[in-house]
Amino acid sequence: MSVLDNWDSWKDFLGDRLHQAQGDGMNDQAVSNLAYEVGDYLANQVDAKNDQEAMLRDLWSVASQEEQHAIANMMVKLVQNNGTK
Q1: pLDDT digits (tens, 9 = 90+) for 5-15
Q2: d(CA 82, CA 27)
């Protein structure tokens, strides 16, 4: 089962990666830029595996670049307290 198949697993996965990047010294701007790149890739290259991902993909598709950055930053905030570590 892929982490993309379950919303809670996906948030935990993202939370783990966020904590790892922060632990390695990645600053907030770099995290924000990476979140945007990941969001753009997922929205354009990966089929949604659940309703939440489909909603995010749909929002991304109608958002301006500034709004897409805001979505990416909200996802970072959403997963800050997630993860297994």
Answers
A1: 778 888 888 88
A2: 19
